[in-house]
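Weekly puzzle thread! Below is a chain. First person to post its structure in token form gets bragging rights.
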Amino acid sequence: MKLPIAEAFDLTEGSVKRLSEIIAELNTRTGKQYDSDLVIKSMLQIRDLLKKSPSLRQYAKANTEQDFAFPYYESADDILIEGLSQNQDFFTLLLNNDDVKKETLGIFLPEIYKELRRG
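Winning reply:
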């Protein structure tokens, strides 16, 4: 599956700054050189796919944000696995490191939860 192009760089300045900080920390911890713009673009693509999930919409409407987190991260895993061919190294890092996945993708959880719950 080819990941769609993210709709827009419609992240708040604070979210972009936080993601950039996380990516810089990851580069330091892993010795990698993940490009901040590419990673943010990938995160936006994942976010957009999560927002379009009918099953996540149902979970958001029927659960608290805390209970929504489990199916949210499970759906994120599915998207990451499907998108591995496009961004294998970074997606593998997310799939193999729950803390990093929650730190990066957790930025979108409240937004997606609220949007899906609204319908």
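Puzzle host: Confirmed. Bonus trivia for everyone else. The first helix runs from residue 13 to 30.
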